[in-house]
Amino acid sequence: MRIGRAFHIKIVPEDLTEPYTFKVTMRRLIIGGVVLSVLMILLGALVVNSAVDEIKLAKLGYLERQNKEMTEKMKKVGELKYELGRMNGLVSDIQEMLGERVESEGGTTEVESSGEEVTTGMSTMLPAGGIFDELRDFVDRYSGFMMLAPVGNPVGGGWISRGFGSVISGEVEHKGIDIAVPEGTEVRSTMCGRVIFAGWDEVYGNMVLVVNCVNGYSTMYGHNSELMVNAGDYVNEGDVIALSGNTGESTAPHLHYEVRYFGVSIDPKDFIEW
After folding, report:
1. Same domain? 219 vs 142
2. In this structure, which of 175, 176, 212, 264 has its CB flanked by the most CB atoms within 10 Å?
3. Residue-wise pLDDT tens digits, 156-177
């Protein structure tokens, strides 16, 4: 086939009007075919290159995610090691506060101050996911509670002659306990707080009322022979605030002792026996 050969293409409209005639030479057809082939090759190359780029991006994203996950895991491992170190310190704090002696081989834990036994499986009672936070919160709550709660016997001995809640001969319910002790026995505050009343009461005679505004506890000491503090004074746990006696409506020397929590009377015996 000669390259110079020409082709005539005739297009006849539907209304049979004058037809359109185009002349195309073989040379133009060859050039057009070559150009079209080159364009197809370039388009194919672009598609392949785009697919390769997408694969590379996918691999890069996967590697980035893997690296991020690995970094987070390493961070958690570091935090866990830190928490383990702190837990050892927290356990030591608990032992120091409770006076515990922990056996090295499981078993029970002896509390030397009271003789109570506490199982060493305390950690099993805490949720596994937040054991360290729970343990830390326990130490904080317990230490704060023990420092501020009215713990101990205000006269350091004696015997309870009348218990909490008892009623005698139609009297009103007893809101505290009576501790029989010799007159003149030192009465010590069982908690730190502010003395909001120190004076004479028709029922309780020479009376002292100590309030701790931080935790809501208050303590009252009645029937004293002599008061050692004044209203407005701040007292610490163990400070001598009065001398026991037989004043007010009392038939024998003793201390009337009350513990209140946000104004509600509770049995002081539970605090004395700690």
Report:
1. no
2. 176
3. 999 999 988 876 655 667 899 9
Residues 6 or more apart whose CB falls under 8 angstroms from that of 105 comprise none
Size of the chain, expressed as the number of residues it contains: 274
Percentage of residues in the chain having pLDDT higher than 90: 33
Q: How many domains does the chain have?
A: 3
- R_g (Cα) of the chain, nearest Å: 46
pTM: 0.51
- Do 181 and 262 lie in one domain? The reply is yes
What gap in Å lies between CA 112 and CA 109, rounded to an integer?
Answer: 9
Strand 205-211 relative to strand 193-201, pairing: antiparallel
Strand partners, 217: 261
Q: Residues near 208 by Cβ (< 8 Å), separated by ≥ 6?
A: 187, 195, 197, 198, 220, 221, 224, 227, 229, 241, 242
Cβ(226)–Cβ(242) below 8 Å: yes
Q: Phi/psi class of residue 163: alpha, beta or left (left: φ > 0; alpha: ψ in -120 to 50)? A: beta
Please report the beta strands in the chain, taking only residues with DSSP state E, as ranges in sequence order: 6-11, 20-25, 100-102, 108-111, 117-119, 159-162, 177-180, 186-188, 193-201, 205-211, 217-227, 234-235, 240-244, 255-261, 264-266
The pLDDT of 44-73, averaged and rounded, is 79
CB contact at 8 A, 239 and 146 = no
Question: Which range marks the domain in which residue 176 is found?
Answer: 159-272
Q: What share of the chain is helix, strand, coil (3-state, %, to 5)?
A: 40, 30, 35
